[in-house]
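Appendix B. Chain record.
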Amino acid sequence: MRAKVDPDVCTGCELCTQTCPEVFYMKGDIAEAKDTDVPPDVQDSCRQAAEECPVEAIVITE
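Structure tokens predicted for this chain:
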């Protein structure tokens, strides 16, 4: 599974970085996802970050 943040939609609220810091980080005022496969042990928190994103900027691909 992989995660991607749409920079045109992200508002920089940092919720994803708090929920799943293993995958998401801030680059300036916008969140980004590490460009690697999401490790199995953090996939649930990564999905949670996507579900809780207030602007639905996170896309998960299985």
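Further analysis of this model is presented in Appendix C.
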